[in-house]
Each structure stands twice: as structure tokens, then as C-alpha cells.
Design goal:
With 468 residues, the protein is of the alpha/beta class. The protein contains 19 helices and 13 strands. It is globular, with a radius of gyration of 24 Å.
């Protein structure tokens, strides 16, 4: 089948990653403008593709919007495995780093017509906007796609937080993820052995938790031997933010939950005691701590499996194999990508077929199994945690970076303790403002009252959200 690709991102690596799409399967045929089948390159007339029930496939073109190449890779595999899926694809990939994805997507959805997406991806930072917030009116319920979504969620054992986030105010499920992003504590075996005499995950989890008091006791023990518990306060925030009782917005006003406010004091305590290396996540010193080349060796990082697979794997250096995962002090989730269909798509049945294969199919032929076992593009690929606990339960999650540990033993139950009930569509902007003020406070540049007042003012200025 013919595939057209638009890439709106100034990132060469992404362009290079997508080059194979244009090359694979290039010998296929495209539907003719009248809905028939165009002649092949040799002038012959191909036989129409057959659908599973023997009828000719409808065909057409699907417009797909994403911010990475993951979903385009999936749909290429789905097409290869299902030749009756007689569709062309327009992939529009816009990187989220510069904030360009959402405005472009919003414009395409509002504009409608042939250029509008048939389906699109939304990540955790802004998914609520499209499933429950200002843009949720564009979303099609999964039931409208021909999916028995309630039965599928139950059979696949999808974590509650994953489908709650995808549930609109009218009760319709309009988005599901393919990953599981419940988190764990990812720690250095050799450091745990030196401090506590064991690197066994079942024992280490009792040294670092449950609860923040226990984790700070562990940080003090680590500090006494010249180690840091985490790299920076961003590592702590990913856990703390998941444990608030209420979100940032309550009754249309800014709300600072005690679960968020605790971050002020914990961050200050860790900095003053030297229990972290004062790095910022996603910057070079943070990556350096993964290889043990920072000021102090760091015991661990908080994160889901994707942090291991796509971040740590390229930065651990000589510490490769010296890592393990255990239950964190409190449950949390971080990240994830939800699939959402456009209610105005003319190809809902086709979108539904693909969505079901990606999110709910628990067979060996479904995306969930291939993604979990690293076989999407053949044996030996990267293994990842998936939305279905059923699939993880019968998959091989052993990872060499973790010294051969089966990470699914920890990450599968992690999803059950994660929650998305406090997420709002404004979290991305508010979290940035909050973390900036917390760093000003913890470093002594502001007192607590000034930090809180400046945070409230910034949120009001940037988002127009009322404050007390």
C-alpha cells in the first residue's frame, strides 16, 4: 500500500527512524479515486483484498497524528499481518518538545474535512484535554468503533487508572493506552549490597518503604556511606505528584493539595542533607548519574519500564547489569500514550479494528503480546510493560540491564496501585510552575510563603485560573 508521511519536527533522528516506512511494502496498490482498485505497476488489475468475512475490504486513507514513530510502526506491522486491511496512511508526526503538537492537532480537529485525523495519540501530559476536557467533544466512544470495550478491559485486565483517564464525563471510554506506566524504584544492586547487605528486591523494598518517612531513613543511611538516594528532586516529584488526594483544580480554582505541598519540605530536606546530586531530569548531569559518573553514586531512579528501556539503556555505561527494580515507597505512574478516534472519521470500523489489536487483543498475534516480548519487528526487540496484566502474566520480562530480573513481576502489580483521578488538562503547565518555585524554596532563594504566592500568581497569569 502507498503511504504518505508528513513530519513536522526539526529532529533528524526522527526523520531517519521513519525512512523505512516509505520503503517497506512499496509494491502494493492504492485504491482508485472511484473506490475501485487501481491497476498495478505492470498494468494488470489486482484482485480486491478480502476481509475476514469474505467481503471485499472497503479501503481508503487513514490520517494518523502522533508525536513519535511508535504508532506508525505498529500500523505498518498490523498491515503486514492483515492484508485485508486495505488502507493507505497519512502519518503526521509533530514533536511535543516545542509545544507544537497540540495547537496543530486542535486546528486539524476543528477544521475537519479530509485533512482531519481519523485518530490521534495523546500523552499523559495532555491526554485529559482530549478525553475529559476542552477537546473531548471530538472523541469517538470506543463502542462507536465496534469495540465491546467493557468486556475487553475486563478480559485483558487493564489497570483501572488507564481506562479512567480515557473515560469522558458522559461515561464513554474514548481513549485507551497500549503501555502500562506504573512505576517502580530502579536501583543499583552493588550499592544496595554495600549498604544493606542484600540486593534482593523483596528485601530492598522494605529498606526504602513503605512511605516517605521510611525512604528518608534509607536516604540517611545511604548518605552516611557517601551515596545519594536519587539524582535530583525531579525523581521525587514523579512519585509525590501521583499521591495527592485532589488535583490542581477544584471547583474551577487552583488547589494545592497537602500531597503536593509535602514536596516543598521533602525537596529541601534532600538538598540540605546532600541526599541527591541536585540534578534536573532530562539534563546531562541526570543522565550522568545513571552511569555512576556524578558527584555521588546514586542508588536509584523512580520510573516505569520505559525509563529503563529508552532512557537508562543508553546512559548506564559500565553499570549495565547492576540494576534491579522493586516496589516503590508509594504507588505512582508516569507517562503513557492513549489512542483516540475522531468522531467524524469516515473509517470508524477500520480504526476500531486497529485500536482493538493495539489495546485489547491478548492473543500472541496482538500488539500487547508482541510489545511485551519485544517481537513487534522480529525476535530480540525491546520488551516493555503493556496495558494488559493478562499478557504480562504470560510473557517473558527478563531484562539484561536488570541482571536478568523479570521486570513484569514488579511492574505488573505497579499498575494496580497507580491512579489518574487527580489529573487535569492543565497539569503540564502547572507542574512546570510548581517545580520552579519548589527549587527556589529548597535552595533558600525564597521562603515558603513567597514561593507559594509566586506560584499562584504565575498560574493565574498563564492560565487565568482563579486563586484564593
Amino acid at each position: 500500500m502507498k503511504r504518505m508521511l508528513r513530519i513536522i519536527a526539526p529532529i533528524l533522528a526522527l526523520v531517519l527512524c521513519l525512512v523505512p516506512f516509505a520503503a517497506c511494502g512499496g509494491g502494493g496498490t492504492a485504491p482508485a479515486p472511484d473506490g475501485g482498485t487501481a491497476p498495478a505497476a505492470d498494468g494488470s488489475t489486482p484482485v480486491p483484498a478480502e476481509s475476514s468475512d469474505g467481503a471485499a475490504a472497503a479501503g481508503g486513507t487513514l490520517n494518523i497524528w502522533s508525536f513519535t514513530d511508535e504508532v506508525p510502526r505498529m500500523i505498518e506491522r498490523y498491515k503486514a499481518d492483515n492484508p485485508d486491511f486495505n488502507y493507505d496512511f497519512n502519518f503526521t508526526i509533530i514533536n511535543t518538545e516545542d509545544g507544537a503538537y497540540q495547537p496543530a492537532l486542535d486546528q486539524a480537529l476543528a477544521g475537519g474535512g479530509s485533512d482531519a485525523p481519523d485518530f490521534f495519540c495523546a500523552e499523559s501530559a495532555f491526554v485529559i484535554k482530549y478525553t475529559q476536557g476542552d477537546a473531548s467533544q471530538f472523541a469517538a466512544p470506543y463502542t462507536d468503533l465496534g469495540i465491546d470495550v467493557a468486556a475487553g478491559i475486563s478480559a485483558a485486565q487493564i489497570a483501572t487508572y488507564a481506562h479512567e483517564i480515557g473515560t469522558r464525563g458522559d461515561g464513554a471510554i474514548v481513549g485507551l493506552p497500549y503501555q502500562a506506566t506504573g512505576g517502580a524504584y530502579i536501583y543499583r544492586r552493588s550499592i544496595a549490597q554495600d549498604v544493606w547487605g542484600t540486593d534482593d528486591p523483596a528485601a530492598v523494598k522494605n529498606h526504602i518503604g513503605p512511605g516517605w518517612d521510611k525512604f528518608m531513613e534509607a536516604a540517611a543511611e545511604l548518605g552516611a556511606k557517601g551515596y545519594a538516594a536519587v539524582s535530583g528532586d525531579g525523581d521525587l516529584w514523579q512519585v509525590i505528584r501521583s499521591n495527592a488526594q485532589q488535583g490542581w483544580i477544584v471547583n474551577d480554582k487552583l488547589n494545592i493539595d497537602p500531597g503536593y505541598e509535602i514536596f516543598l519540605d521533602i525537596s529541601k530536606t534532600f538538598l540540605e542533607n546532600g541526599w541527591h546530586n541536585d540534578t534536573r531530569d532530562w539534563q546531562d548531569p541526570w543522565f550522568a548519574d545513571m552511569s555512576g559518573s556524578g558527584p555521588k553514586p546514586v542508588l536509584g531512579f523512580f520510573g516505569p519500564a520505559w525509563l529503563i528501556n529508552y532512557v537508562m539503556s543508553g546512559n548506564v555505561g559500565d553499570t549495565f547489569g547492576d540494576w534491579a527494580v522493586c516496589e516503590p515507597p508509594t504507588g505512582f505512574s508516569w507517562g503513557g500514550t492513549w489512542l483516540i478516534a475522531n468522531k467524524d472519521s469516515a473509517h470508524k470500523e477500520a480504526v476500531g479494528r486497529f485500536f482493538e489489536w493495539v489495546t485489547l487483543d491478548t492473543s500472541d498475534d496482538g500488539l500487547q503480546y508482541k510489545w511485551a516480548n519485544g517481537t513487534l519487528e522480529g525476535p530480540g526487540g525491546t520488551k516493555d510493560t503493556v496495558a494488559s496484566a493478562v499478557v504480562m502474566g504470560r510473557s517473558d520480562g527478563t531484562v539484561e540491564l536488570l541482571g536478568g530480573q523479570n521486570m513484569f513481576d514488579v511492574f505488573a502489580p505497579a499498575g494496580a496501585s497507580a491512579s489518574g483521578s487527580t489529573w487535569t488538562q492543565y497539569d503540564e503547565t502547572i507542574n512546570i510552575a510548581w517545580r520552579d518555585q519548589v527549587r527556589m524554596y529548597s535552595s533558600g532563594q525564597k521562603d515558603k510563603e513567597a514561593a507559594l504566592n509566586d506560584f499562584k500568581t504565575r498560574v493565574n497569569d498563564e492560565l487565568g485560573i482563579a486563586i484564593d
